[in-house]
Structure formats: C-alpha cells, structure tokens
Amino acid sequence: MERKIMQKLNVPIDWIENCNPVQPGLYFVASRYNKTGFGFYDYLNWDGEKWLKADSIKVVGWVSLADFLGMIDAGWPASDDSDKELEKSYHKNKEKFKGDEGGFYEVE
Q1: Which pLDDT score is estimated for 103?
Q2: CA 41 – CA 73 distance, rounded (Å)
C-alpha cells in the first residue's frame, strides 16, 4: 500500500486564552512544557474544574473540539464504500424510513 504525503495546511485558530472552559469535555489545546518551554498541540480533557494533564504542562490556549473540527474538511477514505451499501439498504427498506426521512436509522 502506497502512503501519500500530506500537505501542510494552515488552519487559523481563534484561541481562547487566559480563562478556562465552562463545560467539561475534550478540547484542542496549545500547551508548553514548563521546564523547557517547548510548545505543542494536543487534545486534553477539562473535567469542569481543571485540565487533566501533568503538572509540568501549561495550557496557553484552547478551542472546543467541535469548533476545531468544523474548520477542517478532511474528506473521507476512498476505500470505504459503505455509502453505496447504505444507499442500497435505504432504497430496499424505504418503508422503515417513512415519517423521519431527515433522521438517522441503522438498518440491519
């Protein structure tokens, strides 16, 4: 299998700084190691009161994961042909979808 080289893409982030999130959850963060000053991106959990991280790490900015992922259009893996199977299943079982065509159903 041949691996493609991904192009680097600049995604401008409106970082939230100098305050903590209100809601518990997973966030995309910019952090620094206190001892070395090395900066990095990561995903961290906020438990509602504190970041779940090592004491040697300082979170300098964060953004909700939903906002971060909303800026990315990554496409979908070409080898996944499940959409074709779902389309066939939908047409075959249209009666099961009546009344809620906008909703999500898992058809077995």
Answers
A1: 60
A2: 19
103 vs 54: CA distance, rounded Å? 42
Using CA atoms, how far residue 33 sits from 37, 39, 56, 63, in Å, is 5, 7, 6, 19
Question: Which residue ranges make up each domain of the chain?
Answer: 1-76
Pairing mode of beta strands 57-64, 39-46 = unpaired
**pLDDT mean across residues, the chain:** 85
| pLDDT tens digits, one per residue of 51-86 | 999 999 999 999 999 999 888 888 878 788 777 777
pTM over 0.85: no
Cα distances (Å, whole numbers) of residue 23 to 13, 62, 66: 19, 13, 13
How far CA 64 is from CA of 18, 57, 86, in Å, comes to 15, 19, 31
What's the rounded Cα separation, in Å, for the pair 10 and 14?
13
- CB contact at 8 A, 61 and 16: yes
Q: Is pLDDT at 10 greater than 70 in this prediction?
A: yes
